Amino acid sequence: MSKAIRQILLLLYIACSFSTLFGQSQKTNAPVISKFKSDADDCIGYESFGYSYQIKNNVFSKIKGSEVFEYKNISLGNITKADIQNPLKIVLFYEDFNSVVLLDNQLNKITEINFSQSNIPIVVTFIGMSTQNQLWVYNTLNQQIGLFDYLKNEYKTVSTPLTETIKYYQTDFNTFYWIDKKNSWFSCDIFGKITALGKIPDFDKIVIVNSHQYIFSKDGLLFFKDISDTNSDTISEVEILEKTFDKFCYKDQILSIFTSKEITNYKIVTP
């Protein structure tokens, strides 16, 4: 290989390296809007009305300043997941007892559902609030996504069986999202339509914003990705004060960062 060719290849390599670095080094500014102390075992989220939700000693709490609401149910064991996307109908999932409890905005029990008593065999692994008095349900017995009407106690399967293990899932009223063990990202709507949304980079933790945006952490850093961006390689680093954190969540343009001692809320507006 001639010296001239080697020099050209070296220049191309340097140019590509700078291009990749530039694409990866974009920053997203997130100003702090509030900060307060917390010693919770698990922080669930923060909403625009100023309430934070947490779990400590298996007691689910809703807190705003000196105003505190609590709910506990010793008979159902540990809380596996809390879904707060509808503050008027909060979902607490108790996987060990195949049950959920729905709470109102003051954490009073609305209803309790034991899926083991359903006419159709259901063993729930993943769950979330859907629309029209329904819950998203992933039934381990048939590896399918379904909808459970908690007023009529009726269950219907909406998806075909999933072939890969679910690594992460998240729901909104109209969509069940999941990422499988191959980091492939999918969605299923209430009519059962499954859409492949693409590949996700390796992550430690992740929050799905919508069908084309997500926020993820890797090696102590936080990133924002929009797959609809014409520059598919662009990943923006979200600038936060914390050097380490236990968990984060995003709701109503508020990014909440949880550490073992405090919660910091940032304002982050996605395009």
Can you characterise this structure?
By secondary structure, this protein is mainly β. It has one helix at 3-24; strands at 27-29, 32-37, 42-46, 52-56, 59-64, 67-71, 81-83, 90-94, 99-103, 109-114, 124-129, 134-139, 144-149, 154-157, 166-171, 175-180, 184-189, 194-199, 205-210, 213-218, 221-226, 236-239, 247-251, 254-258, 262-267. The chain has a five-stranded mixed sheet with strand order 1-22-21-20-19, with no helix packed on it. The chain has a four-stranded antiparallel sheet with strand order 2-25-24-23, with no helix packed on it. It has a four-stranded antiparallel sheet with strand order 3-4-5-6, with no helix packed on it. Residues 8-23 have low confidence and may be disordered.
Largest sheet: 5 strands, mixed
Which radius of gyration do the C-alpha atoms yield? Answer: 21 Å
- End-to-end separation: 48 Å
- CATH class descriptor of the domain at 118-200: Mainly Beta
Topology at a glance:
Blueprint: H1 3-24, E1 27-29, E2 32-37, E3 42-46, E4 52-56, E5 59-64, E6 67-71, E7 81-83, E8 90-94, E9 99-103, E10 109-114, E11 124-129, E12 134-139, E13 144-149, E14 154-157, E15 166-171, E16 175-180, E17 184-189, E18 194-199, E19 205-210, E20 213-218, E21 221-226, E22 236-239, E23 247-251, E24 254-258, E25 262-267
Concise overview:
By secondary structure, this protein is mainly beta. The protein has one helix and 25 strands.
Using brief descriptors, characterize the structure shown.
271 residues; mainly beta; Thrombin, subunit H; 4-stranded antiparallel β-sheet; 1 helix; 8% helix
